[in-house]
Amino acid sequence: MANNRLSDLIHVLVYVQMHEESKLTSDLIASSLNTNPSLARRMMSQLKKASLLETTKGTATPRLSRSPAKITIFDVYMATLPEAPLLKVDKNTSKDCAVGHALPKVLGKYYLDVQSTAEAKMRKITIQDIINDVNMDIAHHQKEISMLNS
């Protein structure tokens, strides 16, 4: 039921930014995502349509459309073209049951609050924040490996 499109689109942006000096084919990006190149191209097209990524036909040089500090997770979330909220209330409940009748409306109120809170948080997290954390994780992992090899 969970959708990993947001995670994958963030992954593409982070990968592109962290390899901005390199030639980046859809094969390379796809290998990082552990997927196929055509799916990587579709994701890059989706990011381009959302004005988050710039590409030039015939060259393997995708670039973020603006500074990673200016792209939020909410921007990427909106690029996923969310057709439904994060949480969906099951409205197909029994209207003959008091709980079945009331619960969809009650849950809808709470789910709307969760949606608003999640979106507000997404507006505060940038691609640069994620890149910083990825770099820290990579450095930590490399330190652990070098300690094991010592």
From TrEMBL:
Pfam families on file: Rrf2
Cellular-component GO terms for this entry: cytosol
Highest taxon listed in the record's lineage: Bacteria
GO molecular function terms listed in the Swiss-Prot or TrEMBL record: DNA-binding transcription factor activity
UniProt cross-references to PROSITE patterns, sorted A to Z: HTH_RRF2_2
Family matches, as PANTHER family: HTH-TYPE TRANSCRIPTIONAL REGULATOR YWGB-RELATED (PTHR33221:SF15), WINGED HELIX-TURN-HELIX TRANSCRIPTIONAL REGULATOR, RRF2 FAMILY (PTHR33221)
Name of this chain's protein: Transcription regulator
Organism: Liquorilactobacillus aquaticus DSM 21051
Lineage of source species: Bacteria, Bacillati, Bacillota, Bacilli, Lactobacillales
